[in-house]
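Ops channel
N.P.: pipeline sanity check, posting one input/output pair.
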């Protein structure tokens, strides 16, 4: 176990090396969250819609994605499709994370949509709106508001799961920690340092999500 003084010394010494991987981790997380939210919303709407076969397609997608490990999905996109289309490390990891989180986000949105009182749907229809307009103008705004807390948790999970991109040699935080550990044979020091980076990022993200929740809660008063 490294001493505290040694840990702090290495933390500040390696700070310039971790800066670029830190930015890459942010870019990977943000891109995957945006794409995953779009996928999740589409799948949720497909699941609650009356489109023939829509619910079956959505259920199959959710079952397959939730039933297979994320690392396998990353490998399939990176190694399995390169002969057809070379997605590269960044987009292979981004799409794998997005597709993976999209299955969970879809269930979050689906639960929020179905939690809205049916009377509001009937009210929208009675005002002359069709089903799509009622969903867009009345149901979705309320459902998105109710989805904020679980979505925040899912986004934090996506941030931590981005570390799996290291296994396709993507130079993010965990990958750099592994490389420095291999070069110095001081594994514990660098894994503790990268754990600290993730902890600080998650803490910042949690504070932002909590602030957003409080701000949206004020609108209910």
């Amino acid at each position: 176990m490294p001493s505290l003084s040694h840990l702090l010394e290495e933390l500040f010494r390696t700070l310039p090396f971790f800066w670029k991987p830190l930015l890459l981790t942010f870019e990977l997380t943000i891109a995957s969250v945006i794409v995953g939210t779009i996928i999740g919303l589409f799948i949720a709407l497909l699941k609650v819609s009356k489109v023939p076969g829509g619910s079956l397609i959505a259920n199959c997608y959710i079952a397959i994605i939730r039933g297979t490990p994320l690392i396998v999905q990353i490998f399939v996109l990176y190694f399995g499709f390169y002969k057809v289309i070379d997605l590269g490390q960044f987009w292979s990891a981004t799409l794998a994370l997005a597709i993976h989180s999209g299955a969970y986000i879809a269930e979050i949105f689906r639960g929020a949509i179905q939690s809205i009182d049916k009377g509001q749907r009937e009210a929208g229809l009675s005002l002359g709106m069709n089903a799509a307009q009622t969903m867009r103008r009345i149901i979705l705004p309320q459902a998105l508001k109710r989805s904020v807390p679980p979505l925040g948790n899912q986004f934090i999970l996506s941030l931590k799961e981005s570390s799996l991109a290291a296994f396709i040699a993507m130079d993010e935080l965990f990958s750099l920690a592994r490389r420095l550990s291999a070069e110095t044979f001081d594994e514990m020091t660098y894994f503790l340092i990268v754990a600290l980076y993730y902890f600080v990022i998650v803490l910042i993200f949690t504070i932002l999500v909590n602030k957003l929740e409080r701000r949206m809660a004020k609108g209910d008063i």
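N.P.: looks fine end to end. The chain has a mean pLDDT of 83.
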